[in-house]
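Section handout, structural biology tutorial.
Before the tutorial, make sure you can parse a SMILES string by hand: atoms, branches in parentheses, ring closures as digits. In the record below the ligand is NAP, and the chain has 294 residues. In the tutorial you will relate the predicted structure tokens back to the input. Do not try to memorize them.
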Amino acid sequence: MSSTQVRTSFALGEHTVQRLGYGAMQLAGPGVFGPPKDRVAALAVLRAAVESGVDHIDTSDFYGPHVTNQLIREALAPYAKELVIVTKVGARRDDKGGWLPAFSAQELAQAVHDNLRNLGLDVLEVVNLRAMFDTQGPAEGSIEAPLTALAELQRQGLVRHIGLSNVTSAQVAQGRAICRIACVQNQYNLVHRHDDALIDQLARDGIPYVPFFPLGGFTPLQSSALSGIAERLGATPMQVALAWLLRRSPNILLIPGTSSVDHLRENLAAGTLDLPAEAMAALDGVAASKATDR
Ligand SMILES: NC(=O)c1ccc[n+]([C@@H]2O[C@H](COP(=O)([O-])OP(=O)(O)OC[C@H]3O[C@@H](n4cnc5c(N)ncnc54)[C@H](OP(=O)(O)O)[C@@H]3O)[C@@H](O)[C@H]2O)c1
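Predicted structure of the complex:
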């Protein structure tokens, strides 16, 4: 498939957003805790993203905590009307930066109000309920009570659309029986492909799938096949990894994270990278060769 055949936008809630967005988690301090080491640089990344056409930013008030949302507000408010800020609730931080579940109705309401205050908004466009049955990855457990509580906050007009994060296929099905699910955000990338079937199902139903750790997250993707293809195409491995995701399924929306304007620009340029069919096939093979990860 050539780059001209790759769609550049997809519906998210009532908006149509560019498929290449930005994830703001990397703007907080080390371990996603505390302030950034360079506040001016963090603000510059956010402004450069929007100036470059990014209209979808992923965040949470538990990044920092509060830090990332406060940076977004300082850099970008008043927000452009086409900018969709997606946040998430369901976790909280302890005083050492640990990640704890925060799934009670009271904690979810508190989190929604924290997001509203720190982002400087009257309503949150999209809120993902982030499951915490296992902090490391999706694990079974009922999301009925927290999702019903979040849907009540939606009825109150504080939340426009609800999504799910770190969830199993069964939880997606359970969620869709409770309320309209606007998007699903799970870990997925070239080598971590547990969600292949879920992505295809969501694509059939027109629901965006937003992979987190698209570049490998805290363990950057490394593969000789990826590096070799990048070299042959005159691109970087990260660009090739993003270009592969754009071709994997049309409902995939990307939110690569970075604290660097140079990396931001490099990542956005992946949108125009042409990936020949043989490169796609070789990249599919990277996942197959890591079959133990599936
Ligand atoms: N729902 C969830 O549970 C969940 C979990 C994790 C993340 N998220 C969301 O997903 C977004 C993306 O995930 P992520 O930021 O953790 O991981 P990622 O996008 O896979 O990778 C980010 C890492 O890659 C580096 N990087 C980015 N662009 C690069 C480039 N062009 N060349 C070399 N290195 C590059 C970044 O370092 P530099 O800063 O040096 O560029 C950073 O260390 C987050 O920002 C967050 O919004 C959601």
